[in-house]
Q: What sequence folds into this?
């Protein structure tokens, strides 16, 4: 019997993936795919919760996200890439779980609260958006995931999932697995504008698929310490995204430390630090771009990979649903 632990995580296909996705989650998935049974969900139903009027955006980004996965090193031979809407068991499980959470509890979720504010929903929040943590709980538990590699903003979702699992198991018997969040060293990568999170919705991203000149342009325009006017002035490293990115992507940690000291002391200009970052990002993104170009030549082949992953995922989810229905006395 297969006793490997399970990883489940995913992304909303609302745009191509960016550096924040990479350090927050994707890097861990690639590292751990050999040790764990890995399922990666392209969460198109969740993407629709704030894109109901734009299904084509969701549709077209499925292939983009899949290409990002493959170029970052997810191996479709061992990791199942699953399209959420093609696994109706996930929607069914969401319906059962909705009876185990209160509206008040959903409204207290700090990440959802912040996202609702950012989207200016006010009282007109789509019900599907408010309950997306419940659908995430269904995703995680349908695959019986032990570990969920995610960025810091997802901690409240895992917490809510654990509560649902506890309620379910108490009420109906021990069927579900309680998952744990796996938070990477870089808990939250800031945006190029210095805002505290790089995010598609905030438009402050560097995409994994950005060409060399686009990356260089974005880095040159990055926010730095506004009080660091002349190279000779002492500057601040904290809250300076250029240094956050160097810390995340420059393999030469000693050199980064030395640059940070020089910047604090004064005498190191922003242009120099940014040139270093451009080089570092090019060294990281160059090989990804190459692999992406290869996979992009065969979109039908990528779709076949997704269909195969989805088939595998659906088998796993269907098994869970069989035990869930039995536990809930719905096995007519
Ligand atoms: P959207 O604005 O559409 O919500 P997003 O950029 O926030 O997009 P998600 O698809 O919500 O991206 O996030 C997917 C995964 O990537 C989650 O695990 C999330 O925690 C992680 N992630 C996203 N942005 C960052 C970031 N800046 N730093 C670290 N992790 C991140
Ligand atoms: Mg998000």
A:
């Amino acid at each position: 019997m297969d006793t490997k632990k399970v990883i489940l995580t995913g992304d909303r296909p609302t745009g191509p993936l960016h550096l924040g996705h990479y350090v927050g989650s994707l890097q861990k998935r690639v590292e751990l795919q050999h040790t764990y049974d890995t399922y990666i969900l392209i969460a198109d139903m969740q993407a629709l919760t704030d894109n109901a009027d734009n299904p084509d955006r969701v549709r077209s980004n499925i292939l983009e996200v899949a290409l990002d996965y493959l170029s970052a090193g997810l191996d479709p031979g061992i990791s199942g890439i699953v399209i959420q809407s093609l696994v109706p068991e996930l929607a069914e499980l969401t319906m059962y779980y909705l009876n185990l959470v209160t509206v008040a509890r959903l409204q207290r979720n700090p990440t959802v609260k912040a996202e609702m504010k950012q989207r200016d929903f006010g009282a007109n929040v789509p019900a599907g958006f408010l309950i997306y943590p419940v659908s995430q709980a269904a995703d995680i538990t349908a695959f019986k995931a032990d570990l969920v590699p995610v960025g810091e903003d997802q901690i409240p979702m895992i917490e809510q999932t654990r509560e649902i699992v506890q309620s379910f198991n108490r009420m109906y018997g021990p069927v579900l697995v309680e998952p744990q969040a796996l938070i990477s060293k870089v808990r939250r990568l800031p945006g190029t504008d210095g805002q505290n999170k790089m995010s598609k919705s905030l438009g402050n991203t560097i995409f994994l698929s950005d060409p060399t000149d686009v990356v260089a342009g974005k880095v040159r325009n990055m926010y730095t310490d506004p009080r660091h006017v002349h190279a000779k002035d002492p500057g601040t490293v904290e809250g300076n995204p250029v240094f956050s990115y160097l810390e995340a992507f420059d393999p030469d940690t000693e050199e980064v430390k030395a640059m940070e000291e020089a910047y604090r002391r004064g005498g190191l200009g922003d242009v120099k630090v940014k040139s270093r970052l451009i080089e570092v990002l090019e060294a990281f993104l160059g090989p990804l771009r190459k692999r992406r170009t290869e996979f992009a030549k065969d979109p039908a082949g990528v779709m076949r990979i997704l269909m195969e992953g989805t088939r595998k995922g659906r088998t796993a989810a269907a098994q869970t649903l069989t035990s869930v229905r039995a536990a809930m006395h719905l096995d007519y």
Q: What stands out?
A: The chain has a mean pLDDT of 96. The radius of gyration is 21 Å. Residues 144 and 177 are 6 Å apart (CA to CA).
